[in-house]
Amino acid sequence: MTEEFPNELTSNILINPNNYEVGDKIKEMCHWSTYKAVERNSQTNVFFHVLHYSKDELNEKSIDLYSKKSLIRAIKLIRKYNFPGIAKTYGVYFPEADDQNRHVFTDSLYKEHVIVVSEYFEKNLEKLARDFSDGKPTPGFGPTERSKIIFGISSILENAHAYNLTHQRLNLSNIYLNDNFEPIIGEFGMAYMLPECERNDYKYLAPEVKKDSYVDYSIPVDVYAFACIVYRMFSYEMTSNNNNEKDFFFRMKIMKGWRPDKPAIIPNSYWNLIIVCWEQSSISRPQFSDITNMIIGDEFVLHENGIDADVNDLKRYQEKMLAFNHSFRRND
After folding, report:
1. Gap between the Cα atoms of 283 and 293, Å rounded
2. How many Å apart are CA 214 and CA 104, to the nearest integer?
3. What's 17-119's CATH class?
4. pTM greater than 0.85
5. What's the CATH number for 123-325?
6. 3-state SS of 202-230?
């Protein structure tokens, strides 16, 4: 390993990309591509995230030693505590760390790119939210599951933030669902490997995040993104009256204090939650502990399309998540 590389990076965090058979591309962001891959020995499906920036570009974009250490810290925290509701990260590959490993790559995809390998999930909240908003069939995505998902995201982030683990690029595309349609948040730590002003989709970026200026990506940034997620779970299109408005102008309006109007489909209880979570002033936004305590109330149990949420099922999930959180704090 080169001298400039983090000393604490151990062999159980570094991965060899040759151990994975990379398949279809699942999604492409402006910063990285995510593939479905298979670990050759165990035949386990994984997400194979490839950062688009090359080693030289990373240096030019100030992805420094602190960024790499922050990613490593996130991976170690997730491994140590096995947070409920956070996808496992199996390892990372840094091209500059390969002087010692001396891998011989058969695919140029691996030669100069940072790669993160994480737990795989089939169901993705982005697609379900889009289909729900468009009126398409969404089996298993009824009021019970949707109530669980919103509560679960808040509870998961409450727990993560208690350990100073922030997400920084929270959005619908990195929230997955297990077989019980319970939320699993992925891509923790990966935002550290991106320039600060490019860490999230513009629809989820808090107004205090400005190009070419330092921003403390702390709890309020995740809270703002949470508000946008809740909004888009009811009304996927998050635009002004001008549907052809360019991203830049939408972003400028957000920074000046504008927010989308309330769609009729969003219940008043959730609209009030959204309003307080996307406050213009970051210090006016609540903590996730406050949000979790708020949305456990009966007024947040969804009733949609003539169907009531299964209150008993929802309460069981809420109690399970709260018990996890209390246990973590007690045993740490």
Report:
1. 19
2. 38
3. alpha beta
4. yes
5. 1.10.510.10
6. HHHCCCCCCCCCCCCCCHHHHHHHHHHHH
